[in-house]
Specification:
This protein has about 375 residues and is of the alpha+beta class. The chain has seven helices and twelve strands.
Length: about 375
């Protein structure tokens, strides 16, 4: 476990790219010291040597030096380019999420972090992950701008309202590490923190098996899709299908009625649910209603996970879907996935979604489901 009784210059290195970030910072410190000390000394030297000795003295005429000008041009250029290349390599490594990553969904709200694993386990302000395993966080927020920051992993990313952002890491040391919100988000911003528990694989497996497993995001999304929201009435496939195809679309290019090609990623699916008229799939009419205000951020996460599962991409930790063959159907103007159901249940749009868009700051909103897992 991480337990330092003193304040180190740098937090403990506990991720696969932490050393790269530290080396870049050490290099920046070295460059700063190497330039600032000689410059300060030169200022004092010239201040003494060339101080005024007589009034109205005529100074000696100084001509330029090609050698000197070349040196003070080349050295700063080389230094600045090495800083740029070092930063670009680290940025590239941190923003390119490996394909084999284990996906965990994150929803921020004032003032807590809610995590859901692909196998259904939910946590608040705590995140359990296995050591030496690539972890992808797919993040959004219910209210204002937040920022996930794990100093020991040398990684952080904004969590932005109305869209998905991602962050990945590979923890290299078992232990307990601080998690912070690094973006001012309200009066209790300083209390919006938590812990990341990095466990050996066998301990993580035991943690997953301990207690009752919650409904997985894919299962919750399937229930919303086929029953509660009535998406299957347009996207269930067959001759009566009115919505665009959903099976196998994730990760592909979708052609819209305006001729534009868009990538069917998490953001596209989310936008298709909330703003369907903004991206109408070619060959379909703009008949899909918006579900903005009818679904919560956590329900959106489940719907996106289910639609991704129709393309065989449900996240590396999700349980395989049993039963039902999944066929595709997307709303007339967007891409939302479907399950082929012999009898399409009637959409329940009565009291099912009432109160879902209430003020997240209200005390009643801070009460989380009883199946939430905390360490």
């Amino acid at each position: 476990m991480q337990s330092n009784s003193w304040v180190p210059l740098f937090p403990e290195q506990a991720s696969s790219f932490a050393w790269q970030v530290d080396y870049l910072y050490f290099y920046l410190i070295l460059v700063s010291v190497a330039f600032s000390i000689p410059i300060v000394l030169a200022i004092f030297y010239f201040f003494v040597k060339y101080r005024e000795k007589e009034k109205y003295a005529t100074p000696d005429e100084i001509h330029g030096s090609i050698m000197l000008e070349t040196v003070w041009s080349i050295i700063p250029f080389v230094v600045s380019m090495t800083i740029f290349l070092g930063g670009a390599i680290i940025f590239y490594n941190q923003t390119r999420v490996p394909a084999e990553s284990m996906e965990i969904y994150v929803v921020g709200k004032q003032w807590m972090w809610k995590f859901q694993h692909g196998t259904g386990q939910r946590e608040i302000n705590e995140l359990h992950v296995p050591v030496n395993r690539k972890i992808k966080l797919t993040m959004t927020t219910e209210d204002v701008l937040h920022d996930v920051y794990i100093p020991a992993f040398r990684t952080k990313a904004d969590v932005v309202p109305g869209r998905y952002t991602t962050l990945w890491f590979e923890a290299t040391k078992p232990g307990k590490y601080h998690l912070y919100c690094a973006e001012y988000c309200g009066l209790n911003h300083s209390g919006m923190g938590g812990w990341v528990y990095v466990l050996p694989q066998d301990e993580f497996d035991n943690w997953l098996a301990g207690g009752g497993s919650n409904q997985t995001p894919v299962e919750a999304g399937r229930e919303l899709f086929t029953n509660k929201l009535g998406c299957a009435s347009c996207h269930a496939g067959g001759e009566s299908q009115r919505g665009a195809k959903l099976e196998g679309i994730f990760g592909t290019d979708i052609k819209l009625n305006n001729g534009q090609l868009v990538k069917a990623d998490d953001e596209y699916i989310r936008n298709s649910i909330l703003n369907p008229s903004s991206q109408i799939v070619e060959g379909y009419q703009p008949i899909m209603p918006t579900f903005k205000g009818q679904v919560t951020e956590e329900q959106l996460v489940s719907l996106v996970a289910y639609i991704k599962s129709l393309s065989g991409n449900a996240g590396n930790t999700s349980s395989p879907m049993s039963g039902a063959s999944t066929s595709t159907g997307t709303s007339s103007n967007s891409t939302i996935t479907n399950t082929t159901v012999p009898t399409i249940p009637k959409a329940d749009r009565g009291n099912t979604n009432s109160g879902l868009s209430s003020n997240p700051n209200a005390p009643s909103q801070r009460t989380e489901p009883s199946n939430t897992r905390n360490r």
